[in-house]
């Protein structure tokens, strides 16, 4: 009897893992469907600025719940994110139902998961092209910051020179160069 259990156990583990994978896929597909329907409804009833604000606040709520309640379960984090987002939207005078708000927070969660999967995938398989692209992006960002800094420094120097020239007359040079004009 013991050998039968030991023989069957790997098969049972494999089947259980497969079932969990299928259930996860079904749940994510369902959430994606809810997200699409909620976004469609939300877009039909709110302005672009309000939608942007709703998505921003929902993202803030998700980030708040993710960091402040690290040890809590997913449902508790969702409730805290809903509460945060609801209060912030009420302060802004935007009325959104809890189901719509939940869908937007779920969207923020799915985007977060997609980003973390992409990061993990790139860390697992280092890609030279991606590293070069990131380096180019970092260099261009640094160059832009350097240009901004130089423009600011130049503007400050010009304003100092202008302020000094406005308050003090520029003395004439005693060694002026004379040019003669001749007619031919």
From TrEMBL:
Record's keyword annotation contains Membrane: yes
Segments passing through the bilayer: 12-31
Keyword Membrane in record: yes
Segments of skewed composition (Polar residues): 175-184
UniProt keyword annotations, A-Z: Membrane, Transmembrane, Transmembrane helix
Annotated InterPro entries: Phage_holin_LL-H
Region (Disordered): 165-184
Name this protein carries in UniProt: Phage holin, LL-H family
Organism for this UniProt entry: Paenibacillus polymyxa (Bacillus polymyxa)
């Amino acid at each position: 009897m013991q050998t039968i259990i030991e023989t069957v156990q790997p098969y049972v583990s494999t089947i259980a893992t497969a079932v969990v994978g299928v259930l996860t896929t079904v749940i994510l597909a369902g959430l994606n469907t809810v997200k699409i329907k909620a976004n469609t409804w939300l877009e039909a009833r709110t302005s672009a600025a309000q939608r942007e604000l709703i998505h921003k606040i929902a993202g803030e709520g998700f980030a708040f719940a993710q960091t402040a309640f690290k040890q809590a379960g997913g449902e508790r984090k969702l409730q805290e994110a809903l509460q945060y987002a609801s209060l912030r939207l009420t302060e802004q005078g935007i009325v959104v139902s809890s189901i719509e708000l939940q869908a937007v927070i779920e969207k923020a969660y799915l985007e977060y998961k997609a980003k973390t999967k992409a990061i993990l995938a790139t860390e697992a398989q280092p890609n030279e092209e991606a590293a070069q692209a990131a380096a180019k992006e970092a260099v261009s960002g640094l160059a832009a910051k350097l240009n901004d800094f130089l423009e600011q420094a130049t503007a400050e120097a010009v304003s100092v020179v202008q302020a000094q020239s406005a308050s003090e007359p520029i003395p004439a040079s005693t060694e002026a160069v004379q040019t003669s004009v001749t007619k031919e």
